Amino acid sequence: MSAFLARNRLIVLAYAGMVVLLLVTALFSPGFLSVSNMRSTVVLAAFVGIVALGQTFVIIGGGIDLSVPWVLNSAAIIMALLCGGQDLPLVWVMPLLLAGGAFIGFINGIGVAQFGVPPIIMTLATNVILQGLILVLTGGSPTPSAPALIQFLSVGRLGGFPVIALIWLALTLVATLLLSKAAFGRHLYALGTSATVAEFSGVPTARTTILTYVISGLTAAFAGMLLTGYSGQAYLGMGDAYLFTSIAAVAIGGASILGGSGHYLGTVAGAMVLTILTGLLPALNLSSGALLIVYGAVILLTVSIGSETFAGLGGRLRRKEG
Amino acid sequence: MDLVTVNGLSKRYGGIVALSEATFSARAGEVHALLGENGAGKSTFIQILSGAVQHDGGSILVDGQDYRPANPDAAQARGIAAVFQELSLIPDLSVEQNIWFRHEPRTWLGTVNRTEMRRKTLALLEKYNFPALRPDQELRRLTLAERQIVEIAKGLAKDPRILILDEATSALPAREAEWLLNLTRQLAAEGRLVIFISHRMAEVRAIADRLTIFRNGSTVAAHEADAVSDNEIVTQMIGRHLDRLYPERVSTATDRIALGVKGFSSGSRLSGVDFALREGEVLGVGGLQGHGQRELFQALFGATKASGSIELWGKPVSIGNPRQALTGKDGIALVPEDRRGQGLLLTKSVRENLTLSVIKRFTENGLLSRQKEAALVKEMVDFLRIKAGTSEQLAGTLSGGNQQKVIFGKMLLTQARVLLLYDPTRGVDVGTKGEIFQLMRDLAAKGYAILFHSSDMSELVHVADRVLVMRNGRIAATLEGDHISEEEILRAAMLETRAA
């Protein structure tokens, strides 16, 4: 365990940051640490955390997934349309949409791994194409409300715990197993550290790359459906915020944005930090514009303190001064 | 008076002592060789001299004045430039842009004066009789050897009084290495001091006026070059007597063909190669650099596309990528040319590197078994005597020789018995070189089949059972027994070139 801590200093740092942030927030808004408020904070963080799960895999592998917002939007809107407020259709709609998310990820992965399209371009393109498809499909009209079962999954409780928190916990376990205990994890870290060395070492680089995007498509689609339950209905643009937050959560969690390092356990702390921050800022009584500016700046600051990329740069600058 | 005097120089990295009480002195106008095994402290020493790191204790005098550069720029201001093994060039820039990087000639507007830069580049290349280089060529198109030459030009562009060459010849083919040796004499004749690091004794013999030997972070001895024998030098370097560098060559080859290659072609560099590598054999691949050796090794390993037929242990196979090459006990494994770019994950541990190609060997029901992995790691660390603090130490922090051992370990764990070794001793200290040659013969005796390329021809002569000489992408000659000599290899490699 101590070896794990030594190797994952940045993850420990992310959790320390989370605790500090909690205490600071409690100082400004005394009710913040109450059970009900913590509960709702965890629920909000879970959405970020689930989207960021796939993003974590993609980033560790040396890529980035910018198609997250519209995979999320599409899953949310199509689910609402197909279910029409009924629970029963979920039996086939949910697997169908998860498969759809995985398929989008597969396309992204093929483009990156087989055709050498830069990840930014590839995923940005699928994002725009999906946006177009959904607009054609819905004509921009509002959708029916979310089925009750989905609402239960996202806002319901089980034994006092939010259901979505339990789902998040289960997903965290799966992600940790994949990263720390499976051959896939080893392949992924090698790929993100050096694609050439990985290839020369017999790592199935193409398959590994494709799989990361498939996972990202899956989690984005899943988060889209859950988010519909949370807000009661699906609407265009509901996933937009998750592009930035999913990447920021990974970076705050200690992963190098260039790939090869990081862990989902860090991303979990990153998702919490981002969510607590959105709770803290309103307590400071700022206008909504000023709020966004502070939010962005704080994230930039957190990431630059935490991320290895910048730590290296800081070291280099310090050496120059010395 | 001495140009550089170093006393009691010390440097620690955390708990590791890299240099302790090292001394050194060198005069202007001499070529001064710095010798020592990898990890002896040579690299740290020249990093301090060139301003890349700062020392903790001791003093350096340059021209009798205290010298403690805060960074490489400050070192250059005092007339000290270094050419390192790890190249510092930018692939996207041209040759000349790299040479004058951050020191570009300017116009009165402050923009780069391209005409002047071209003129200065050509003047520099001509003055020191550089091998052919096109100033406007993009660096990424150059071979490793050509990049090394650009790196040397970049060092000289600063017009240094002290030029440090860190294993600059190790990436160069014979002709260019010869040029570099002459260059060091020319620089010394101009009154400059050249500090020269090389693991090749013959080179040191050819050019050095004096030499200083490092071991375990301290200075062991300094000699006038003509007052000391090779044996004394090697003994002082490794702290024990090395019987000989090359193991006895006892042929262990059987009649069984491990790797049969017919009509093997790849791109424009490799056309119609036929040969048979036998079980228990060390088959050398020689020739002038750039005649298809690299392409042969890469294509056999599946790293580049190729046509023709390959038989492994009598069975026809097609190898589309390295993963297929490495599969199973009948696979092919490679020690690649570029240790840092192709062989090792520098920011990952020795353990992760060793087991990267054999994750299946310690996976049970889809989960990794850390115990089984640890056993595999221990097996290789012990077998190859890899010197690392723990198996969790990062591969990038190991010395060159130990990094190469990790790559060997990674290859041996795959259980492939056809081994492709591309220049496995490049930049490796003399002690480890001896271990590698011994290992090759031991593996051959166990029935491994080894294809072996070296940029140092004498290694082929002393280690290989047979030598294939390549010329223009074909096998020009196969030398056996008493016919293997540097002269014969060169003759076969150059014959057609001369005729054409």
Describe the protein.
- The complex is a heterodimer of chains A (322) and B (500).
- With 322 residues, chain A is mostly helical.
- In chain A, strands 1-2 form a two-stranded antiparallel sheet.
- Helix content of chain A is 77%, strand content 1%.
- In chain B, helix 13 (370-384) packs across helix 14 (400-413).
- With 500 residues, chain B is of the alpha/beta class.
- Chain B has helices spanning 42-49, 72-77, 95-99, 114-127, 144-157, 174-189, 201-207, 230-238, 293-300, 322-326, 339-343, 350-355, 370-384, 400-413, 430-445, 457-463, 486-499; strands spanning 4-13, 16-26, 31-35, 57-62, 65-66, 80-83, 162-166, 193-197, 210-215, 218-224, 257-266, 270-278, 282-286, 307-312, 315-317, 332-335, 363-364, 367-368, 418-422, 449-453, 466-471, 474-480.
- Chain B has two domains: 4-238, Rossmann fold (3-Layer(aba) Sandwich); 257-499, Rossmann fold (3-Layer(aba) Sandwich), CATH 3.40.50.300.
Q: Any chance you could write out the topology, listing elements then pairs?
A:
The complex is a heterodimer of chains A (322) and B (500).
Chain A: H1 2-7, H2 9-28, H3 35-60, H4 68-83, H5 90-113, H6 119-138, H7 148-155, E1 157-158, E2 161-162, H8 163-181, H9 183-193, H10 195-200, H11 205-231, H12 241-252, H13 264-283, H14 288-306, H15 308-321
Antiparallel strand pairs in A: 1-2
Helix pairs in contact in A: 2-13, 3-8, 3-11, 3-12, 3-13, 4-5, 4-6, 4-11, 5-6, 5-11, 7-11, 8-9, 12-13, 13-14, 14-15
Chain B: E1 4-13, E2 16-26, E3 31-35, H1 42-49, E4 57-62, E5 65-66, H2 72-77, E6 80-83, H3 95-99, H4 114-127, H5 144-157, E7 162-166, H6 174-189, E8 193-197, H7 201-207, E9 210-215, E10 218-224, H8 230-238, E11 257-266, E12 270-278, E13 282-286, H9 293-300, E14 307-312, E15 315-317, H10 322-326, E16 332-335, H11 339-343, H12 350-355, E17 363-364, E18 367-368, H13 370-384, H14 400-413, E19 418-422, H15 430-445, E20 449-453, H16 457-463, E21 466-471, E22 474-480, H17 486-499
Helix pairs in contact in B: 13-14
